[in-house]
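Late entry, evening session. Most of the bench is empty. Finally got around to the prediction I had been postponing all week. Sequence below, unchanged from the version circulated by S.P.
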Amino acid sequence: MLETNIDDMNPEIYEYVMEKAFEKGALDVFLTPVIMKKNRPGILLSVLCEEKKRRALEEMIFRETTTFGIRRYSVDRNTLERQFIHVRTKYGVVPFKAGKLKGETLRYTPEYDICRKIAMQYKRPIQEIYRELKEQLEEYLKQTHLR
């Protein structure tokens, strides 16, 4: 985990920094509001990465933010096995991420970028798109006996 506190950077830049971090191989990036010395509001930038990506990510953080220092520490991480299934829906073929534990599928999730694209294309609320896609997934799973 790479972390740094920042209290002097234009907040618009964080989106760019997050994109760059993912491009450099970050597993996760998140921002946490913090109160720093002298009661100044700031942001804790946290970047989760594999050790082999650490140096590239540290360099990017130094180049793209106003920080003078980065803390790093090891964290243990456990994840579900991931697999994608592609389901034909009324919006076309949509990928769903399946999360598995010991071979058992615990959950399916439609990909956000696809849901966003569909919502914008059809001028519909994204929550409705998620709901419809999950309903169509359930029907697909019943028909294919995957569940």
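Two things to note before I forget:
The first helix runs from residue 13 to 23.
The radius of gyration is 20 Å.
Will write this up properly tomorrow.
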